[in-house]
Structures are given as structure tokens and as C-alpha cells.
Amino acid sequence: MDSDTGTRDDWYADAFGALYPVVYARRTAEAARPEAAFAAERAGLGPGDTVLDLCCGTGRHAVHLAPRVRSVAGLDYSPALLELARRRCCGPLRLVRGDMRRLPFGPVFDVVFNFFTSFGYFLDEGENALAAREMARVLKPGGRLFLDHIGADCAVAGLVPHSERTEGDFRIVEERSLAGGPESRRVNKMVTVLRGGETVGLFMETVRLYTPEDLAALFTGAGLAVEALFGDYDGRAPGPDAPRMMLLCRKGGA
Ligand SMILES: C[S@@+](CC[C@H](N)C(=O)[O-])C[C@H]1O[C@@H](n2cnc3c(N)ncnc32)[C@H](O)[C@@H]1O
Questions:
Q1: Eight-state DSSP code of residue 46
Q2: In CATH, what is the architecture of 12-151+210-251?
Q3: How far is the CA of 114 from the centre of ligand 1 (A)?
Q4: How far, in Å, from the CA of 55 to the mean position of ligand 1?
Q5: Are 69 and 51 in contact (CB under 8 A)?
Q6: Which of 22, 152, 193, 216 could crosslink 201 through cysteines, CB 3.0-4.6 Å?
């Protein structure tokens, strides 16, 4: 439990339920298409590759990766989102419920993808490092990791403390704040979902913000070589104005 915000250690068990597709209605499979294409190209994805979409959610990236490769596994913790992925995806896609800190795989993947800020969730930084080590462990020698995290400086500078919007029948109210010092900064978001004036969902999200150097050091410490950093899906360099912080890493020993 975070003593300042009251955030439970396992906040992610509630935050990615049936209302997630309402709150993130704009994060569609169509929006994921160019992201999957960019990541696939930068990771040098090939038709014989075995791929893991780690924290696959509804499978909106996996559906674009699957036609390019031999097989895709999608792993996620949320039964609700896995069910949506199951309905969306067919073909060479295996969906698995699991926790990113304990992946139920050996070193079998040519490429691991982790899209859309699906890292830095654990309040104990040792657990985030454990998730990074798991990503490295399940790669074959020479395998690549592509991870898309939030651009920290941009997130801090552009933080909107309060916003409200309508998605179909739902009203979504989001309260955002920063926590921790420069060494351990997190962005917290409290989401309230209302329908017909009644609250139908209330949950917290919290994500660790990393400098490019800190994120690179974390994955280097996990045993990967960082080959490239990007600040967005247009290929720009990371920096204060870059909305994303994307990492391409390689496991040695090929
Ligand atoms: C921001 S969403 C992104 C989902 C998907 N990558 C996308 O782009 O739509 C984060 C995902 O991480 C999953 N997740 C959260 N905690 C997890 C954990 N401990 N292990 C595995 N997946 C987890 C959530 O269920 C959710 O699907």
C-alpha cells in the first residue's frame, strides 16, 4: 500500500476490467496498426519468428503482428481483456493469463513486445526490475525486446490534474497527480466512470516514470543490450518534448 495515496499494491487487478475499453475507447486496433508496424520493423520481425505480446490487453497489437510471424502468444493479467482478445483474434495466437513477474515460458521468443505503458506498475521498484528480468529470460539468445513507455518529462510538463469527457453513455472523470521525488517519480490517476449520474467504476492507476537513462539501465541490468531509443512512433529521439519513451534491446549470446 502507498501510504500517501492509499494505492493498493495490486491496483492493476481492478484497473483493467470490463470498463477499461470504455475509458480507453480511443486506443483501438486501428490506432495500434501503425504502432505494431513501426515496432515490427525496428525489431526486425521475420516470418519465422515466435513472438510474445506481453500485457496484450484486448490483443489490438497482436492482431497486426500475427500475420507477419510464425506464432504470437499474448499474455495478460486481466481475464476481461483476454476475453475480448479471444473474440478479436484468431489464427496463430495463443492467449495466456499470467503475471509479468512470473512468465510461464522458457527462453523461446525471438521478439517480446510491451506496448502502451504496460511497465512500471509495481510500487516496489524491485518488482519492476523482476518484470524486466523476466522479459530478458524468455528471449532466445539474440532475441529482441521492444518496449513502449510514457515520456516522463512530457507527462510531467503536460499533466492535466482534472479532466472530464463523455464516451457513449458514460461520463469519465480523471484526476491526475505526481508522487515521489525525481528518483522515484510516479504519475497517479484516479478514474471515476459514471452512467446516468451513478458511479459504475472507480479505480486507481499508478505508473513509474523513468528517465531514458534509468529505463536503459534497468534493462541493461536485466541482461539486455539497449540498441535504440525512440521518443514516439515517428522515430524521433527521446527528449523533453517526446510523448513516448521506447526501447529496443537485444539479448546477447546469438
Ligand atoms: C495500459 S494497458 C495496455 C494493453 C495493451 N498493450 C494495449 O496497448 O492496449 C496495460 C495492460 O497490462 C496488463 N497488466 C497489468 N498488470 C499486469 C501484470 N502484473 N501482469 C501481466 N499483465 C498485466 C493489464 O491487464 C492491461 O491489459
A1: -
A2: 3-Layer(aba) Sandwich (3.40)
A3: 9
A4: 4
A5: yes
A6: 193
Under 8 Å between Cβ of 185 and 178: yes
- Domain positions in the chain are 12-151+210-251, 154-206
Residue whose cell numbers read 495515496: 5
State whether the beta carbon of 57 lies less than 6 angstroms from ligand 1: yes
Task: Domain 154-206: state its class.
Answer: mainly beta
- Contact, 103 vs 75, CB < 8 A? yes
Q: Is pLDDT at 140 greater than 70 in this prediction?
A: yes
Q: Ligand 1: does its nearest atom lie under 6 Å from the Cβ of 146?
A: no
Say if ligand 1 is within 6 A of residue 122 CB: no
| pLDDT 10s digits, 177-186 | 999 887 789 9
Tell me which amino acid residue 88 is: R
Angle subtended at Cα 211 by Cα 64 and Cα 180, rounded to the nearest 5 degrees: 110
Q: Could you tell me which residues come within 8 angstroms of residue 235 by beta carbon, excluding any fewer than 6 positions away? A: 38
- The Å distance, Cα 22 to ligand 1 centre, comes to 15
**H-run or E-run covering 73:** strand 71-76
Average pLDDT on 85-102 reads 88
CB 116 within 8 A of CB 146: no
Q: Does 26 score more than 80 pLDDT? A: yes
Pocket of ligand 1 contains residue 149 by CB under 6 Å: no
